[in-house]
Amino acid sequence: MSLFIVGLDNTIVNVALPSIQRDLHASVSGLQWTIDAYTLVLAGLLMLSGSTGDRIGRRRTFQSGLALFTLGSLLCSLSPSLGWLIAARMIQAVGGSMLNPVAMSIITNTFTDPRERARAIGVWGGTVGVSMALGPVLGGLLVGSVGWPSIFWINIPVGIAALVLAGRFVPESKAAKARRVDPVGQILVITLLASITYGIIEAPTAGWTSVQTIGCFALGAAALAGLLAYEPRRQEPLIDLRFFRSVPFSGATVIAVCGFAALAGFLFLNTLYLQNALGYSALKAGLFTLPMAAMTVVFAPLSGRIVGARGPRIPLIVAGVAMSASGLMLTGLSLTTPVAQLMAAYLLFGLGFGMVNAPITNTAVSGMPRSQAGVAAAVASTSRQVGQSLGVAVIVSVVTSSVHGSTNAALFTHASHVGWWITVGCGLAVLVLGVLTTGAWARGTATRNAARLDEPAEVRTEVTA
Hints:
Elements: H1 2-11, H2 17-24, H3 28-56, H4 58-77, H5 82-97, H6 100-110, H7 114-145, H8 150-153, H9 155-169, H10 183-206, H11 211-230, H12 247-277, H13 282-288, H14 290-310, H15 313-329, H16 339-365, H17 370-403, H18 409-436, H19 440-453, H20 457-464
Helix pairs in contact: 1-7, 3-4, 3-5, 3-6, 3-10, 3-17, 4-5, 4-9, 6-7, 6-17, 7-13, 7-14, 7-16, 10-11, 10-17, 12-16, 12-17, 12-18, 14-16, 15-16, 15-18, 16-17, 17-18
């Protein structure tokens, strides 16, 4: 239940954006922040929340997250202005960051057999994928019938029910040895994500070569350099850079960023196209995405079963081909594009997204020692949120820069072509990396890296010396 509402909240807001824009007098960049304030905070805190659960108790952390997420949802529905809505979305995200890592820790430590764990991860990935795909449909129904605040009401009874059920059925557990807090690493991660995203979102207004934009990118580069220099010096870093010596892990990280960037850009552009350009109601726009949701519902669990039986390569190849083809069909989008062409593109994208989610986590944790699997999965989850943030920031900002603030429907639709080409590129990246990171050579790097990661600290010190 908790995974469902967190995934749902990633996408349900998209279909409500035009209504929020009208009611709260928001700009396009304001709408971007409505999405990215949530995904950025979620990305920045996932690993910290995971280690907090190991330290103070996973059930306690889980319940605290549910309480915060439910409170944030209530505040979102009551927001009188865009600033209040963005702040409430950040509260939601703080709570949401406490849910995914705990759920994955339970899975990786309960299912010790690799095949069983792959199936369990498939169910987890399927739940997240289905909830994200259903977001626009459910959002359209709620916005069209009740209004945009109602998209946040749905979280309240589900959150309360999950809170009660967690207290009754989820046993308390802690790690035998909890990871230490890494405040410097945490600050550097947040600085990196926030500065780059802020620079991209505000660039169409401030100018891509303005002092503000260049300063944001420079700050992000400095934060990245700080991470690369500082984290290897810590015995228990926030991000263990040795993980990236595993080709499957590195590939899964980039696949997650590309796949979820494509999803975020797809949903954002599609919402503005259907409602602002074509003038459809939120309900009709939500129903238009029903084919995409249906395909994800069907293929997300199927992807998990394929990963458990055959490995991640087949789902990743199918995902890359389908997402690329979907984006390609929309690169010539116009105000007179046939409905049949839109439906075909939605069906293909739903197929691709349904296939991509489960193998990301499986590929990330493949070959990892059990003690490190939860951390590896947390990095994969963080990559998903980073991908969504960058997808909204990059794709929408590039399109917005092309229209120079114009609200002309035909001009926006033509400008969106470059956004769809970026989506094609993301799909092709998933395809290529899906092939490169799932072969024998790639699995060998994961096995060798797992052996190094499993060595006692004193042995690693002697080898390094």
